[in-house]
Amino acid sequence: MARRMATVGYFVMLPNLYYRAGKDTKYGDDVLEHGSAEHTRMRSVRTKMTIPPIMEDIEAMLSFVDGHPSGGSGPVGAHGYCMSGPYALAAAARFPSRIGAAASFYGTWLVNDAEESPHLNLGKIVGEVYISCAEHDELAPLDMVEVLRGLFDQSGAKGELELQPGVHHGFAFPERPVYDKPAAERHWERLFALYARNL
Fold it and tell me: Is 130 exposed, middle or buried (0-12, 13-18, 19+ CB in 10 A)?
């Protein structure tokens, strides 16, 4: 997916968000099976990956881009899938002068009780935002999506929230059983259009 972004002409950075857990972050085939040993091991790492340390990583990445010959100091984009959807939105709020566009694809728990929940800072985002949710997603249930839609509208943030009908969490990942090619291609169209307008 990073290579596909790069073929359009973007300078792409793909961080390993699990690096703080060390090198043992390769998971077996049963990682998606709730209650399995691998799922439990992955979740123990995931629950420690809160927004504040990820924002430190993004700040370092922005510094790297600024100093790279292919980078520059202009607006950048940030987008994330699943657990990194909230990070992209949080980054847009934390670095409003740098992040010109942000997208979240089936982002998890975009409205939650944490003090750094992404929904709390939507009004701080200056760039354009695109939030895409799957109709069938236990990590972003429809009632939460509707709450988020209301909060998004109230925030005055530029952009939109779109619900993808008939698809499941993970629909854009080609190697997942829930991959949905029409929805996945739509996600690329929306992402490339978002970035073309703002970067």
Answer: buried
